[in-house]
Amino acid sequence: MVDPHDARAVASWRKLERERLIAARLALPADYRAAQAHAIARELDRLIPARADTVVSVYWPIRGEPDLRPWMQTAFERAIRIALPVTVALRQPLQFREWWPGASMARGLWNIPHPADGAELMPTVILAPVVGYDRANYRLGYGGGFFDRTLAKLAPRPQAIGVGYPEAAIESIFPQPYDIPMHSIVTGATFVTGPG
User: Fold this and answer.
1) How do beta strands 125-129 and 113-115 pair?
2) Share of the chain above pLDDT 70, in %
3) How far is the C-alpha of 142 from the C-alpha of 156, rounded, in Å?
4) Right CATH for 7-193 from 3.40.50.620, 3.90.660.10, 3.80.30.20, 3.40.50.10420
5) What is the pLDDT of residues 10-65, one digit of tens each?
6) CB atoms within 10 A of CB 182
7) What is the DSSP letter of 48?
8) Whose CA is closest to 64, among 28, 92, 113, 91?
9) Residue 129 CB: number of other CB atoms within 10 A?
10) Phi, psi of 164 (to 5 degrees)
């Protein structure tokens, strides 16, 4: 058992749970991951309006995350503006730069690609990859706190959608005061709305 009021115990548990969930995600067959990503894309089409003022921050997939790059292309063709998050420094909120097909890319922290020279945008929707998620729509990420810091800072707060596989569901992430729940979680098999 983990005492949710003991921040050190929660941090230790989360570290082990991240390792377990990432290993399980990487073990999923590639064709299964592709099918789930396709199903996630269909649900995103339903959830995200194609309006002139819609700006969606997507993410560049790493470590077996659902690959939404094909969806980025089709969303762009539907006149949705796309941004990618940029990690400026550790323990700092994310910035968001505009992406388009053929955009020049650079590599940031952890070698993750982002637009090299796109305009800085304020997203109306943020897609956040999940390592794990619980029934209250709290997201277990990689532990850097980038998305939580960013969501806490943005006003008005954008719609936050967690994206992952059904296998990432856990009973609780033992939320701490700095954790911010997603508005919804999309997995390709389930769609969960919650208090976020």
Assistant:
1) unpaired
2) 96
3) 25
4) 3.40.50.10420
5) 999 999 999 999 999 999 999 999 999 999 999 999 999 898 899 999 999 999 99
6) 27
7) S
8) 28
9) 22
10) -170, -165
Q: What are the DSSP calls for the chain, one per residue?
A: ---TT-HHHHHHHHHHHHHHHHHHHHHS-HHHHHHHHHHHHHHHHHHS---TT-EEE-----TT----HHHHHHHHHTT-EEEEEE--STTS--EEEEE-TT--EEE-GGG-EEESSPPB---SEEEEE-SEE-TT--EE-SSS-HHHHHHHH-SSPPEEEEE--GGGB-S-----TT----SEEE-SS-EEE---
For the record, the structure tokens of 50 come out as 């194609």
Encoding tokens for residue 142? 């990689």
* Pair of tokens at residue 30: 């590639």
Q: Which two tokens stand for residue 71?
A: 């969806």
